C-alpha cells in the first residue's frame, strides 16, 4: 500500500469506490500468492488489515459493494473456498424407489400424467446409479468453460481448475457439439484406484480413506488442483443442463451424442418398452454389481422421449420422468450402548440409539434413530443388546431388531422420560389428533421457553435451505446461544452481531476458537445474507408444516414479504377471506393454514418476526414468465380435459405465471371448463367470470 489511508468516515463515495476496487485487486493478488504460489508477500496481520478496511468501507457504503468483493467470497480465507456458480438449469436430484411395486407405480404415474392410452408404449431407459458426486461441465464453443459441483442444486462451487485435471473430461469436444453445452455426470474413483491410494497412505503412515465416494468428493474439492491431479478420478456423462441446440430427441440419443463429443458413458444403459424388462435389467445389474470396477447404489430409470420429459417437468427437486431404484440397504450388528433423548425444533422428543461404532456399507455408524417410544417397544430392545443396524443411502440409520441369543443378563429396559431433558423439566405431552386420539409423538410444551427448541429454531434458521449463512453452523449457533457477551437468542440477534461486537469490550476475535479473520468473515457472511429471497425468509421461520415447497408456493402466490406477512396475520385473526385465499393455493390445506395461524397468533413469534424483518431486506419472489398473456391471473380448471391431465394442465399454467385455484371466487379471472363441469361453471356464470374451453386455453397461451 502506498497512498496514506483516509479515515473511512472521511471518504467521499468516489474515493470509497476507488479504494474498494484497489482492495479487491490487492486482496485477490495476495490470495493467489498465498494459495496458488504458496509464497505470500504480506504477514497475516497485514492481510487481515486489508480485509478489515474493505469491510469497514463496505459497511459505510453498502451500495458500493462490488460483485468481486473479497467479502463476498466468505468463510475461511478467501480462496479457502471456491467461488459460487449459479447453474443455468438447476441440478435436480432423484426420487427413490425401493421395491418393484414402487417402480410400477412410477411408470403408472407417468402414464396417468401424460394421459397415455393403455396400449401406448412408453420407452424407459435403465442405467446404473453411480455412487460418486455429480458435476456440471459447461462447454462454450466446444471448449470447457466452467465446471461446477451440484451444491444445493441451484448454486454450486466452481471447481474448473480441478476438473481440468481429470482425464475423462475433455478440454475440447470432438465432433460437432452445440455452441453451449452443459454436460452432467458423476465423478468417481474406481475400486482399484481407491485401494492403491490407501496402500500409499498406509505406507506413509497416514490415515486411511473411508470409501471411494467420500475420497472422490474430497479429491475434487481440493483448493490445490495438483492434489486433484494426483488422484485418478474418473467421469461418466449421463445428463445435460443448458444446451443451445439439442443434438437428439431421446435420452439414448443424447447419451450417444455425449459419447461422440468425447465422454465416457455407461455401457449398461439400455432402453426397454415395459416395466418387467426394466426390472429384469435391474436384476442383471444387481448381479453384476459385485464385479463392476466402481461402486453403484441402484439403477436409474428415465423416460426416453425428451419431449415427454419436458411435459412431465419436475416436482420440488426431482423430475417426474426419472426415478432411482435403490439396492437393498446394507446391515450390520453392533451393541446398543444407550438411548438419549433429542428435542427437535417443534418440541418432539426423539430417542436416539447410541451404538458401538460399526461400519455399514462403508460408513461408520454411531447413532440410529428410534423415532418414538412405541418403536422401542415394538423392537423390544434393551440397553446392552446386540442390535441389527441398517443404512439405506443417505437416510439416517435404523435399528431393525436385536439378537436374542446375545442378550446379556444385565440388559436394561429404557424408560421414556416424563419431562423434557432441558433444565426447565417441562412435562411432556402426547400429541392428539383433531378427534382426540393420542398420537405417538411426545412433545415438550415449553416451546420458545425450552432452550433446546430455541436452539433448534436458530439452527434451522441458518441452515442451508434457509438463510444459509456460511461459517454459522450448528456448532457456532450453540456457541452464540450460550455466549454471555454476544448472545444470539433469536434470528434478529444474528444481524446485530457485528454492531454489538463493535460496541463490546470483549470482542469475538479474542474468544477461544475465533480469530480476527474468522470473525470478520462471519460478519461479512451475515452481511451478504441480509438481503434474502422471500421463500428462504418464510422457510427460515420454521413454522410447522411449512417446508421448502410450501414456502415457495407462498412466496410465489403473495410475491412480497409485506403481502405474506399481511396474509399470515389476517389468517391468525380468523379472517375467512384470507383463509380461503390461502386454501386456494396448490398443496396448501388446513394443516398448513392452522400452523401459520398458530404461529402468527403467538405474541412471541410476531415480535420475533418483526424484529427480524427490521434487520433484513426481503427480495420479492420472481413471478414465472411475467410476460405471458396470462401471467398473474387466477385460473380455475374444471370438468374433464382431453389433451392433458389436470396435473399437467396446472403445472403448465404455473409455468406461464398463472395462479391455479381450486375454487371459483370473485378473485378468479378465468375458468377453463371441459365436459361435465358443474357447480364451478355455475358459480362463474353467477359472478360473470369469463369461461373458455380447453382449446381456447391453448390458443390463449400460444400453444394452440
Ligand atoms: S440423472 C435429472 N443418472 O444421483 C436427473 N443421476 O439422487 C439427474 N447419479 O445427483 C440425475 N448416477 O449425482 C442420474 N446414471 C445416473 C446417475 C445419477 C448417479 C446421482 C447424481 C444425482 C443423484 C440423484
Folded structure, characterized:
By secondary structure, the chain is an alpha+beta fold. The chain has 5 domains: 3-73 and 329-406, Nucleic acid-binding proteins (OB fold (Dihydrolipoamide Acetyltransferase, E2P), Beta Barrel); 84-326, DNA ligase/mRNA capping enzyme (D-amino Acid Aminotransferase, Chain A, domain 1, 2-Layer Sandwich), CATH 3.30.470.30; 447-529, DNA polymerase, domain 1 (Orthogonal Bundle); 533-619, 5' to 3' exonuclease, C-terminal subdomain (DNA polymerase, domain 1); 634-700, 3-Layer(aba) Sandwich (Rossmann fold). 37% of the residues lie in helices and 21% in strands. The protein contains 25 helices and 26 strands. It has a 5-stranded mixed sheet. Helix 2 runs parallel beside helix 16, helix 17 packs across helix 18 (548-558) and helix 19 (561-573) packs across helix 21. It is globular and about 75 Å long. The relative contact order is 0.07. The structure holds 2-(butylsulfanyl)adenosine. Residues 92-94, 127, 129-130, 134, 150, 186, 238-239, 300, 319, 322, 324 line the site of 2-(butylsulfanyl)adenosine. 2-(butylsulfanyl)adenosine binds next to strand 3, strand 8 and strand 13.
Keywords:
D-amino Acid Aminotransferase, Chain A, domain 1; 5 domains; DNA polymerase, domain 1; binds 2-(butylsulfanyl)adenosine; 704 residues
Strand count, sense and closure of the main sheet?
5 strands, mixed
**Average pLDDT figure:** 89
Q: Tell me the number of helical segments per DSSP (H or I, 4 or more residues long).
A: 25
Shape: globular
Radius of gyration: 28 Å
Content-based structural category: alpha+beta
Q: Quick one: CATH class of the largest domain?
A: Alpha Beta
Q: What small-molecule ligands were found?
A: 2-(butylsulfanyl)adenosine
Amino acid at each position: 500500500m502506498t497512498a496514506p489511508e483516509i479515515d473511512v468516515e472521511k471518504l467521499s463515495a468516489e474515493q470509497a469506490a476507488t479504494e474498494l476496487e484497489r482492495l479487491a485487486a490487492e486482496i485477490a493478488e495476495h490470495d493467489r500468492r498465498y494459495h496458488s504460489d504458496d509464497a505470500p508477500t504480506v504477514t497475516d496481520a497485514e492481510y487481515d488489515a486489508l480485509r478489515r478496511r474493505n469491510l469497514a468501507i463496505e459497511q459505510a457504503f453498502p451500495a458500493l459493494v462490488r460483485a468481486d468483493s473479497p467479502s463476498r467470497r466468505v468463510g475461511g480465507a478467501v480462496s479457502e473456498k471456491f467461488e459460487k456458480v449459479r447453474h443455468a438449469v438447476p441440478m435436480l436430484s432423484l426420487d427413490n424407489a425401493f421395491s418393484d411395486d414402487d417402480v410400477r407405480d412410477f411408470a403408472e404415474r407417468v402414464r396417468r400424467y401424460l394421459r397415455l392410452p393403455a396400449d401406448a408404449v412408453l420407452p424407459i431407459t435403465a442405467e446404473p446409479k453411480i455412487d460418486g458426486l455429480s458435476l456440471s461441465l459447461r462447454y462454450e464453443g466446444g471448449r470447457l468453460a466452467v465446471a461446477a459441483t451440484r451444491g444445493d442444486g441451484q448454486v454450486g462451487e466452481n471447481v474448473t481448475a480441478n476438473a481440468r485435471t481429470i482425464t475423462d473430461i475433455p478440454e475440447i469436444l470432438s465432433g460437432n457439439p452445440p455452441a453451449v453445452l452443459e454436460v452432467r455426470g458423476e465423478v468417481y474413483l474406481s475400486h482399484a484406484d481407491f485401494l492403491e491410494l490407501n496402500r500409499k497412505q498406509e505406507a506413509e503412515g497416514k490415515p486411511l480413506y473411508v470409501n471411494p465416494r467420500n475420497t472422490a468428493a474430497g479429491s475434487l474439492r481440493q483448493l490445490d488442483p495438483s492434489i486433484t491431479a494426483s488422484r485418478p478420478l474418473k467421469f461418466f456423462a449421463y445428463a445435460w443442463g443448458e444446451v443451445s441446440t439439442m443434438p437428439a430427441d431421446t435420452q439414448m440419443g443424447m447419451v450417444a451424442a455425449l459419447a461422440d463429443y468425447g465422454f465416457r458413458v455407461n455401457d449398461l444403459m439400455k432402453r426397454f418398452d415395459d416395466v418387467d424388462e426394466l426390472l429384469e435389467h435391474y436384476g442383471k445389474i444387481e448381479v453384476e454389481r459385485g464385479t463392476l470396477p466402481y461402486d453403484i447404489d441402484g439403477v436409474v430409470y428415465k423416460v426416453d422421449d425428451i419431449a415427454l420429459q419436458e411435459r412431465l417437468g419436475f416436482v420440488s427437486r426431482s423430475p417426474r420422468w426419472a426415478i432411482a431404484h435403490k439396492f437393498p440397504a446394507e446391515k450390520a450388528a453392533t451393541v446398543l450402548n444407550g438411548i438419549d433423548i433429542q428435542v427437535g425444533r417443534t418440541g418432539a422428543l426423539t430417542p436416539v440409539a447410541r451404538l458401538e461404532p460399526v461400519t455399514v456399507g462403508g460408513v461408520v455408524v454411531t447413532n440410529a434413530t428410534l423415532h418414538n417410544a412405541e418403536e422401542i417397544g415394538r423392537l423390544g430392545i434393551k440397553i446392552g443388546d446386540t442390535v441389527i443396524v441398517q443404512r439405506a443411502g443417505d437416510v439416517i440409520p435404523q435399528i431393525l431388531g436385536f439378537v436374542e441369543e446375545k442378550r446379556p443378563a444385565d440388559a436394561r429396559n429404557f424408560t421414556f422420560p416424563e419431562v423434557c431433558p432441558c433444565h426447565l423439566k417441562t412435562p411432556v405431552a402426547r400429541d392428539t389428533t383433531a378427534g382426540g386420539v393420542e398420537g405417538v409423538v411426545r412433545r415438550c410444551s415449553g416451546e420458545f421457553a425450552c432452550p433446546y427448541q430455541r436452539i433448534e429454531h436458530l439452527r434451522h434458521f441458518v441452515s442451508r435451505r434457509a438463510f444459509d449463512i456460511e461459517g454459522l453452523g450448528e456448532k457456532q449457533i450453540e456457541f452464540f446461544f450460550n455466549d454471555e457477551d454476544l448472545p444470539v437468542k433469536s434470528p434478529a440477534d444474528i444481524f446485530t452481531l457485528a454492531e454489538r461486537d463493535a460496541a463490546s469490550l470483549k470482542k469475538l476475535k479474542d474468544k477461544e476458537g475465533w480469530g480476527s479473520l474468522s470473525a470478520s468473515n462471519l460478519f461479512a457472511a451475515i452481511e451478504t445474507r441480509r438481503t434474502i429471497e422471500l421463500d428462504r425468509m418464510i422457510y427460515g421461520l420454521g413454522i410447522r408444516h411449512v417446508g421448502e415447497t410450501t414456502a415457495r408456493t407462498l412466496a410465489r402466490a403473495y410475491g412480497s414479504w409485506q403481502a405474506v406477512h399481511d396474509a399470515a396475520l389476517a389468517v391468525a385473526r380468523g379472517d375467512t377471506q384470507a383463509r380461503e385465499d390461502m386454501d386456494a393455493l396448490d398443496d396448501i390445506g388446513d394443516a398448513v393454514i392452522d400452523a401459520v395461524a398458530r404461529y402468527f397468533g403467538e405474541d412471541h413469534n410476531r415480535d420475533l418476526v418483526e424484529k427480524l424483518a427490521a434487520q433484513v431486506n426481503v427480495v420479492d419472489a420472481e413471478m414465472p414468465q411475467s410476460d405471458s398473456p396470462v401471467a398473474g391471473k387466477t385460473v380455475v380448471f374444471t370438468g374433464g380435459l382431453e389433451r392433458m391431465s389436470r396435473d399437467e394442465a396446472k403445472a403448465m399454467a404455473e409455468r406461464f405465471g398463472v395462479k391455479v385455484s381450486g375454487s371459483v371466487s370473485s378473485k378468479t379471472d378465468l375458468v377453463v371448463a371441459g365436459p361435465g363441469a358443474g357447480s364451478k361453471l355455475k358459480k362463474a356464470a353467477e359472478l360473470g367470470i369469463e369461461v373458455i374451453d380447453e382449446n381456447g386455453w391453448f390458443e390463449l397461451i400460444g400453444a394452440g
